[in-house]
Amino acid sequence: MITVPDVVLERIRIDAVQAYPDEGCGVLLGRFSEDGQERIVQDVQPLVNSREPQERYHRFRIEPLDYLKAERQAAEWGLEIVGIYHSHPDHPAVPSDYDRDHALPGLSYIVVAVRGGQADEPVVAVEPVAERTTSWTLAEDRSQFRLEAELDPVDARASIDRQSFDKEQYSWPS
Amino acid sequence: MAIVTIPSVLRTYTARQSRLTVPGATVEEVVSTLAASYPDLAPHILDDRGDLRSFVNVFVGEQDIRSLDGVTTHVDDDSAILLVPAIAGGAPEPAGRAE
Closest Cα partner for A13 from A161, A156, A122, A168? Predict the structure, then answer.
């Protein structure tokens, strides 16, 4: 379970949009509940995507020293790294197998789908927008991610037909 | 012997302890002892062969062991070992919109 203030979510979405067409990434700072099952996010730290420029459209990596720096800063504030966020440019907010391979149980993984309107869109200037934001946790046996929360504001993207949203087969709204 | 700092993302497996004093004369010995002491931690830092997983970085002091002697890097009683997970991910292949 994850709790995220709207202001923190907004910062995540802004970073995801600003990173477009690359993947944006960062760490979620906050506290774990006593039983470790809940992550209470209080702040966010965007970090550099250190992948090669030609790979950043579909990959991110946080350098160990950047991670260490963020963790130390968090500790100074009495916080811990409770999760990771990253964006999927022009791809749904669903973690990939690649994400799963690099994930750890016990954390929240927020994925922001950013749509840039570049691919097969009509010729209309479209600013990148954060389409959907989801949060996932990795099963202890590392077999799968489980959706723990949808984090979009209720009034966001009114054009999305939420009734048709299929968590298993999520695709872009038509 | 070394003082191992556990990153917050792995403290679930060390009863949320952030620093542990672990016996061993090399990084390899320290990590192996640590994994044996915390079996739930083991699969997240070691692979099936007992080697360090590729996405776990180990620092002695401020230096990555890759720039030292790797897992055979010697440690003293006051050595500080940092385990730092490589945080990575990305969209599924092929990149583009899901149908």
Answer: A156
